[in-house]
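Design request, tokens follow.
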């Protein structure tokens, strides 16, 4: 059994980790931390775990984490995971970090987009970007996995086959993305207050969303050269789910059937990527609560533009489910272990 700890266990991603790990056949969840609820049982804060997970939440004391633990999930806020991750690695633990603290390879980008100086830049080169469909081999031996952001997960998986095969005009990429409110985290803030969100639909952080450099970093890596994208996120009045509609110009002549076959071949060994064939299109309810990323393509022959639709559950494939998928790879398990849930 893999002995696991979750730091930051009462936020949305921490709670999802508990839900998934508590039914994982090869995991024993032995430690959960929370600064706000130190000394309380998990089931007191999240009653859905009553009778299933009765662990007591502890204040995070990294020096007191037992050496018997095999993996630590850091579900801490951006800016807090860097120090925790460095201390955990120093003590010899393997780490999957769900914050943005180890995703960007250039520390100046982290400073520019997150507004704080990175305290452990020496770890940025050694961290592995935890997108299993692209970097599974590197994840296997990694001690520090930087779990991708939710928007980047859906966007990168939607574009990867085309970039690998040099089929995109790199200056043409426009990404229109919509997310449920849980993507903003559990801490209450006015823009995400229920009366401000319900029966409302809005764009936010246009040309300034913090996931932009992560998206561009990974797409550039796939393309073999620097590229920039136009990325506009929107807030949808639902709890969970992300739908990305990406527009681009295709290089060369490819039919819609050719492109669909390209995607099927590219993801043929990836159990959590599903390709929809015309006329079907993915919807967020088809993946809610699951670890799937569903993709569909539509070629507009009139304009020679390709439209890609990708959907994920932002808390599962966009965060905690993908973290468990990374753990499975790190410990030699099937990627699918403990992640067989279909959509709710």
């Amino acid at each position: 059994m893999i002995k696991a700890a979750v730091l930051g266990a009462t936020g949305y991603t921490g709670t999802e980790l508990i839900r998934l790990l508590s039914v994982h056949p090869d995991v024993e969840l032995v430690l959960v931390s929370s600064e706000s609820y130190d000394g309380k049982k998990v089931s007191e804060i999240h009653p859905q775990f009553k009778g299933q997970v009765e662990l007591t939440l502890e204040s995070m004391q990294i020096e007191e984490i037992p050496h018997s633990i095999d993996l630590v999930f850091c579900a801490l806020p951006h800016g807090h995971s860097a120090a925790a991750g460095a201390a955990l690695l120093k003590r010899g633990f393997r780490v999957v970090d769900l914050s943005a603290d180890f995703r960007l390879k250039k520390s100046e980008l982290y400073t520019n987009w997150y507004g704080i100086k990175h305290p452990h830049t020496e770890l940025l080169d050694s961290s592995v970007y935890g997108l299993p469909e692209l970097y599974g081999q590197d994840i296997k031996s990694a001690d520090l996995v930087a779990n991708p952001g939710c928007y980047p997960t859906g966007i990168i998986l939607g574009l990867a086959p085309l970039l690998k095969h040099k089929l995109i005009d790199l200056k043409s990429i426009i990404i229109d993305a919509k997310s449920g409110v849980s993507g903003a985290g559990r801490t209450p803030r006015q823009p995400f207050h229920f009366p401000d969100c319900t029966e409302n639909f809005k764009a936010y952080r246009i040309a300034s969303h913090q996931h932009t450099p992560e998206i561009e970093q990974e797409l550039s890596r796939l393309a073999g050269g620097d590229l920039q994208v136009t990325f506009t996120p929107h807030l949808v009045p639902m709890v969970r789910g992300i739908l990305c509609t990406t527009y681009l110009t295709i290089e060369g002549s490819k039919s819609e059937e050719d492109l669909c076959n390209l995607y099927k071949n590219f993801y043929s060994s990836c159990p959590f990527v599903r390709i929809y064939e015309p006329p079907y299109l993915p919807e967020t309810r088809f993946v809610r609560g699951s670890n799937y990323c569903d993709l569909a393509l539509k070629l507009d022959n009139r304009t020679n533009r390709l439209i890609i639709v990708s959907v994920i559950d932002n808390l599962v494939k966009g965060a905690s489910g993908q973290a468990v998928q990374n753990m499975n790879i790190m410990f030699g398990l099937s990627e699918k272990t403990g992640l067989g849930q279909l959509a709710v």
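Comment from the thread starter after seeing the answer: thanks! The first strand starts at residue 2 and ends at 7.
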